[in-house]
Write a structure and sequence with these properties.
alpha/beta, eight-stranded mixed β-sheet, two-stranded antiparallel ribbon, 11 helices
């Protein structure tokens, strides 16, 4: 079951979607996607959760059904939007989960508005990216780090099926346990335009603005509320360079063992930790436990 929720924010309306089963006693969870993704990142996790929790998955401004929202972009703008979502839903405090960029947004939300967040489930994001330390040229780093992703935003596709096929062949997805039906919905939700000139809805400016914001000190290091960080052993193209190395995540958890927990998820990369069945089941179990904690 998917329910669209439109939220008034600065500059227009932000789209959010209720994913999963909606029962009277089903706890809602604010779910925030990655830098070039959308609410459909969470389809597999929502399916794995069943009626244990319902995800309120946003399309961040500059993407998918929120693609027409104007600047400002960056983490602070996304935090203001997330507060607006919580207000719209009447949630005084919420369990919040975020993947990749979404984890950084979630951590900043918890630091700036700790009274609005019960717990955090961070998925392969939130801590300083190792390769970004001491970078003299942040824009050059973003161009190199997100190069293939930024290239995708310039591409056109003749149909939804063609775009889904492109994703199926992506190095992070090919051969992985990703449901093709969910992957097609993920692809379809991103596209705008008409055949044969369809393209990603993602505003390239928002990618650069959000990416540059990641060079600030990690908000996750300042968290004082309960938080779990799940780490993938492989990177964005199934490479052996994880965004959140488990050893780094474990040191973060050890710094406040009362409130923090590190979990390594074997056999996944930065994408399949949420898009793949195994990764999504693991994330769902952590969310479900946090929802009743």
């Amino acid at each position: 079951m998917t329910e669209r929720i439109d939220v008034d924010v600065e500059g227009g309306r932000l789209a959010a979607f209720g994913l999963g089963e909606a029962g009277a006693d089903t706890p809602p969870v604010l779910a925030i996607h990655g830098i070039t993704s959308s609410s459909r990142t969470w389809l597999a996790t929502a399916a794995a959760l069943g009626n244990r929790a319902r995800l309120i998955a946003v399309d961040l401004r500059g993407r998918a059904r929120s693609s027409e929202l104007p600047p400002p972009f960056g983490l602070d703008a996304h935090v203001r939007d997330m507060v607006a979502v919580l207000d719209h839903l009447g949630l005084e405090r919420a369990l919040v989960t975020g993947h990749s960029l979404g984890a950084y947004v979630a951590a900043r939300l918890a630091v700036q508005h700790p009274e609005r967040v019960q717990r955090l489930v961070l998925v392969d994001g939130g801590l300083t990216i190792p390769e970004s330390r001491d970078v003299a040229d942040p824009e050059g780093f973003i161009d190199a780090f997100l190069g293939p992703t930024l290239d995708r935003l310039k591409m056109t596709f003749p149909s939804v099926d063609a775009y889904a096929d492109w994703w199926s062949a992506h190095p992070a997805i090919a051969g992985a346990d990703v449901d093709p039906v969910k992957l097609r919905e993920y692809a379809a939700h991103d596209l705008v335009g008409e055949p044969p000139q369809m393209r990603s809805s993602i505003n390239p400016q928002v990618v650069r603005d959000d990416g540059l914001d990641l060079f600030s000190d990690a908000d996750a290091d300042r968290l004082t509320l309960p938080a779990v960080l799940l780490a993938a052993p492989k990177g964005m193209v199934d490479d052996p360079h994880p965004m959140q190395p488990l050893a780094v995540v474990q040191r973060w958890a050890d710094a406040d063992a009362e409130h923090r927990l590190a979990i390594g998820v074997p056999g996944v990369n930065h994408y399949t930790i949420v898009l793949g069945d195994h990764g999504a089941r693991t994330v769902a179990e952590v969310i479900a436990r946090a929802a009743v904690a």
